[in-house]
Amino acid sequence: MKQSQSQDRVLESANALEMSTASALLQDLADVEAPPALKAPVNDEALVHREFLDAEFWRRIPAFRRVAKAEFCDHRFQIRHSVQTIEQLQELIAPLVPRAFLEDVGAGLRQAPMNLRISPYLLSLIDWDNPYDDPIRIQFIPAASRRLADHPRLSFDSLNEQQDAPTPNLVHRYHDKALFLPLDVCPVYCRFCTRSYSIGPEAGHDKLAAFRASMKEWQPAFAYLASRPEIEDVVISGGDTYNLSASRLRLIGETLLGIPHIRRLRFASKGPAVMPMKILSDSAWTDTLLDLVDMGRQLGKEVALHTHFNSVNEITDITRAAMHKLFQGGMTVRNQSVLIRGVNDEADAMVRLVRQLSYMNVQPYYVYQHDMVKGVEELRTRVQTAVELERQVRGSTAGFNTPTFVTDVPGGGGKRDVHSYDYYDELTGVSVYRSPAVDPDKVYLYFDPIHLLPEAGRRRWAEPREHERIVQEAVEAAGLSALQPA
Fold it and tell me: Which of 142, 239, 327, 445 has the highest Cβ tally under 10 A?
């Protein structure tokens, strides 16, 4: 203990010396005249990404009005009070919204393919004066009046993960990368989740789609990973690694780091966006994660966290503090957004998100074209929207902090740069991609939402006998008729 305290004092003295040296250097600049500016002065709006909500915003919810900050910022409070039923939700928001909205949400939840789970943190950030247009409500709480019919080409497990699963909780699609799914629960449930088939109301009936946090279930996956020397990169997802206990998080991390050929671990979690206080209040979990970072570094291996912010509305000063804690611990944090209509499909919204993430040392990594998922057609955008959005975002900040816009193509072709299609028919909304490293003999097709197509395109899709012809025309126009659609 004495040695540790002595080391802490040395570090504090060193930090103080560095700060005093920096202050002295800046003081030397006080009398130096800056060169004339070549750029116009920026206004406050250009720096808004540096502002973080620091109010007690949860007091807007009547049930949380007397909740102290220390209690609200405890992850155990968030877990205990997460909403999982229509009745719980209606009880919390009934004083804030019209009865018609409550009925609309009730109907939406009864129709939804996903279970409901939303944290008090997110509920408190929703603008209940305008809930229909709120970017958090859009992502987590369905309204029946906004629902649209699914695209006729939508399919169960659209990314074909089960096809590439040597064991139920492992996906091996890319040559040197595998996806490990150790559990099937999350701190919240996103309406647009790719794996809604595994955590929806009927998921329990499909044993292949249920991922359980059981060491016995994990052993075949570990054995497979150890037997495949080409695998260097493992993503640990689910479900969500936020819901692993500290002991199981450590077990997974140490086991995978102990496999010699595995060089990179990526723990995937929505948690920082939906319950950031866990990083600050669950010291066992956070310390375990940072211990794995240190262990990896000693072995010459990388351990990173991949998270999932879609809107600046999800970010508060609690988030900033949580990300700072991870940064101080040496953890690389990368963000993977999903492009969602009404949430981040405008250039101003995406640029601000990218800048605010960068400001708190979270690297914007990917923006995904919305997957073709059941029950959320109103959330998808056209491919052309993503292409144009990337054009506007690129150049607004440093290149390494500019996300890559990708389509995770249906049929299991993996991630393709959104603009790398071989052909895109804006009339019928069909984009044609190839993925030679995955399967050189196939083409992969993504379909824009029908209701966003020009009228002539909508008319063609209204005729079922036209569907195969639409697909054939797109593949022929791409010059890929010799390949098989996935």
Answer: 142
Type and span of the H or E element at 104: helix 99-111
Q: Do 212 and 204 form a contact (C-beta atoms < 8 A)?
A: no
Closest by Cα among 362, 336, 12 to 190: 336
Q: What's the CA gap between 332 and 329, in Å, rounded?
A: 9
Phi, psi of 470 (to 5 degrees): -60, -45
Q: Which of 420, 449, 466 is the last residue of a domain?
A: 420
What are the pLDDT digits (tens) for 283-327? Answer: 999 999 999 999 999 999 999 999 999 999 999 999 999 999 999
CA 458 vs CA 149, 172, 429: distances in Å = 13, 37, 10
Share of the chain above pLDDT 90, in %: 82
Residue 34 lies in a domain: no
**Helix axes of 317-328 and 283-298: crossing angle, nearest 10 degrees:** 40
């990917």: which residue's tokens? 366
Which residues face 33 on adjacent strands? none
Last residue of a domain, one of 117, 145, 173: 145
* pTM, to two decimals: 0.91
**Which domain covers residue 173, as residue numbers?**
162-420
Token output for 1: 């203990």
Candidates 224, 223, 199; CA nearest to 212 is: 199
- CA–CA separation, 374 vs 193, rounded Å? 9
**pLDDT tens digits, 404-452:** 999 999 999 999 999 999 999 999 999 999 999 999 999 999 999 999 9
Whether 114 and 219 map to the same domain: the answer is: no
CB 333 within 8 A of CB 326: yes
CA angle (409 as vertex; 429, 343 as ends), nearest 5: 70
Give rounded-to-5 percent helix, strand, coil for the chain: 45, 15, 40
User: What whole-number distance in Å separates Cα of residue 281 and Cα of residue 296?
Assistant: 24
